[in-house]
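Throughout our pipeline, every protein is held as a single compact record rather than as scattered files. Nothing more is needed to write down the fold, since each code stands for a local backbone conformation. For reference, a complete record is included directly beneath this paragraph.
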Amino acid sequence: MANKKIPKTSVYKWEGKNRQGALLSGQMTGQDAVMIKALLRKQGITPSKVQKKGIDLFRAGKKIKPMDIAIFTRQMATMMKAGVPLLQSFDIIAEGVDNPTLRKLVDTVKNDVASGNSFAVSLRRHPQYFDELYCNLVESGEQSGALESLLDRVATYKEKTEALKAKIKKAMNYPIAVVAVAVVVTAILLIKVVPQFQEVFASFGAELPAFTLFVIAISEYIQSNGWMILLGLVAAVFVFRRLYRNSKKFRDTMDRVLLKAPVFGNIIYNSSVARFARTLATTFAAGVPLVEALDSVAGATGNVVFREAVNKVKADISGGMQLNFAMRSTGVFPSMVLQMTSIGEESGALDEMLDKVATHYEAEVDNAVDGLTALMEPLIMSVLGVLVGGLIVAMYLPIFQLGAVV
């Protein structure tokens, strides 16, 4: 059975009429056009046109995002809870997917499962999309006979994790984007507008104000060395990304620096606590032993400080220490998390307590990001006003002085 070849399926667009003569159209997944026509006739539809759906050039190379995997997981959980067989669930999901890359992934996993492999084994063949935590939870669900329940937990975990990441990116990207626009606008003014005023000032024959001379000097420097500055910035970004991608030591250093950064550091700290609690709650509730669960938790926190702390907790627990004492000894986790963990261990409801912790810190991140965004808007507008307004004042100051003399 393992070597059985699975027929390839594709998405077909069809048009036809029902028994009442009404025109209908839609999409359907099948092996070929003949099979699609047969299925339509069974539904009382006389097909007039069936053709394979073409590849959208704008979507052909579209990447699969983590949120796509979260949506796929939620759909699988919903299908299986409704009693839809596993293989049929794959077909239904693939039919509704617009991203060709994701549709191909779903079909590949389906074919692996149909060939006799378990769902978890099929997922492990795509580690770039399904991490070890995801595969372990699916495997636990298959072994315990509660796959739909575990998929629901995994879907919730992925959705909340991605929502948290989106909040962090929002907090980081907004000010960066606005500052970038401010730099571009300022550069255009210095390169294109200031030289025009400079020609006018040359005809005055009078001494220019110091502020105007300063702006003109900056304009001349950028005009002479603009390409060098641009190349330097591009090279700096390239080197930074290369170092971050290839150097673990550099990534660890950046993690520690960001954790201590004003304002942003608190958001990153709370998000790491939330991910720690959410991941541990999900794995522990799935029946994964605590020591094994901490392996997945260490990588999911997203920060080297927490990763090292979780590894230390794991070592202490392996030596017989309770979880809350092991966490306390690291000096990384806040007191609320320690107290809730202690209550959870004593009451036998550790997963519930950790879930409440995760919800609390996710809300803290949401509030912090919303507050930061509200604070950054007037602040950034002020910076833009000072930059652009300062350039305008510098250019018109000699004209005002000339008018006063006249």
